[in-house]
């Protein structure tokens, strides 16, 4: 491969896969809905924060802050049927067939929330905010399991 063709091959843009596009649209719709009903709450989206232990950055889909509490919102636009196990694993059974393990999703969400809470507590040690995590499952064709165990 010549230098020019290699250069142009690196610049080629690829369209995102369908599930990525639908996930982004779902996040956008959730953000619009949240802002419409949030009142005086501060609503932030796509909060990126450093991860000193694992390196790189982590992103929280949405943060809603009031005078007394902060709500971390992680949005998942999964379809199909899923199972939830006590260790926090989510096993997705896709409508078009096949399974996908989201083995560490609960732990990653909890970790991102802890990181942001640590940053807040370090900067504002006298602040008595309470912190909560919400996972918004937004796909209309998601089948819920009969029982969901308490997730660590």
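^ structure tokens above, recovered residues below v
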């Amino acid at each position: 491969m010549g230098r020019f063709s290699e250069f142009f091959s690196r610049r080629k843009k690829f369209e995102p896969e369908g599930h990525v596009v639908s996930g982004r649209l779902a996040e956008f719709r959730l953000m619009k809905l949240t802002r419409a009903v949030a009142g005086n709450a501060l609503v932030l989206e796509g909060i990126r924060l450093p991860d000193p232990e694992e390196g790189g950055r982590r992103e929280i889909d949405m943060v809603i802050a009031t005078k007394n509490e902060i709500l971390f919102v992680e949005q998942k636009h999964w379809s199909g049927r899923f199972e939830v196990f006590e260790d926090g694993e989510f096993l997705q059974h896709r409508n078009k067939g096949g399974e996908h393990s989201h083995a560490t999703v609960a732990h990653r969400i909890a970790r991102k929330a802890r990181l942001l809470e640590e940053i807040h507590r370090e900067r504002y040690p006298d602040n008595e905010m309470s912190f909560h995590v919400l996972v918004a499952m937004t796909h209309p064709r998601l089948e819920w399991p009969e029982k969901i165990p308490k997730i660590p």
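Residues 74 and 135 are 5 Å apart (CA to CA).
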